[in-house]
Amino acid sequence: MLKMIEWINFTFLIVSVLFCTIYYIKSVQPAALEKKIGKIAYKKCTKYRIISSIFMFVIIINQFIYFYYPLPINFPRYFTWDYWISVIIAIAISVPSISLMFKGVHDAGKETIQPTKEQTLYGGIYEKIRHPQAIGEFGTWWIIPFLLNSPFLSLFSLVMIPIFYFFCVFEEKDLEFRYGRTYIEYRKRTGMFIPKFKRLAKK
Predict the structure, then answer these.
(1) Do residues 14 and 156 lie in contact, with contact meaning Cβ atoms separated by under 8 Å?
(2) 73 assigned to some structural domain
(3) Residue span of the structural domain in which 78 resides
(4) Looking at beta carbons, which pairs linking 154-157 to residues 24 or more positions away fall under 8 Å?
């Protein structure tokens, strides 16, 4: 049984990523769901967001288990450089990522977990970029792999690039459906991940 732990854990890791993705995408489409089931859709989406967060936590647990029970494959278990380099990389990633994520959470308020029909477009950092939480949270997926000094987990985390991109794409489609022209105009003046800089007016 112990020889199977590696593959069982890796299977759970894949399944957790899959369900985390499914439920998060479901959670960012309250307006579309409302057309089918009414205003209760917003409460449904809150539950979906919580379920997605639970699977995110399971993924973190899977990563730690993988450190002790790596797959029996021909792949380096540790980075070739000294461990302190991995720690510095983890810190360098965590400081801006966590700061940006918490700034986004602060400016979004309850909507971070609990979408409501009455919510207007956010202010604060959202006046510059549309997905600060996604950028910040995206970066955090490399903190644990580097702290564990694991090349495999660092490489595996690359799967989060398309996943987080699609999170934002599905969310924007629903926000456009939800706010209409207001959101379209907002999208024109803000960057998806990088702020838009106004061009200097020609003299």
Answers:
(1) no
(2) yes
(3) 2-189
(4) 156/13
Closest CA to 98 of 49, 145, 142, 57: 142
pLDDT value of position 179: 86
Element (H or E) spanning 189, and its range?
A: helix 181-189
The pTM of the full predicted model, rounded to 2 decimals, is 0.86
Rounded distance, CA 64 to CA 61, Å? Answer: 5
- Close Cβ partners of 78 (under 8 Å, ≥ 6 residues apart): 149, 150, 151
**Sequence-ordered list of residues with C-beta below 8 angstroms from that of 67, at least 6 positions apart, any chain:** 148, 150, 153
- Quick check: is 203 in a domain? no
- What CATH number does residue 142 fall under? 1.20.120
pLDDT at 107: 84
How do residues 102-117 score in pLDDT, each as one tens digit? 988 888 877 777 777 7
Residues 6+ apart with CB under 8 A from 188: none
H helices within 41-148, ranges in order? 41-68, 83-108, 132-140, 143-147
Segment (H or E) for 78: none
Domain assignment of residue 113, yes or no: yes
136-160 pLDDT, tens digit each: 888 899 999 999 999 999 999 999 9
Query: Which secondary structure element, helix H or strand E, spans residue 114, and what is its range?
Result: none
Q: Report the chain's C-alpha Rg in angstroms.
A: 19
Report the amino acid identity of residue 110: K
In a domain, 160, yes or no: yes
Into how many domains does the chain fold?
A: 1
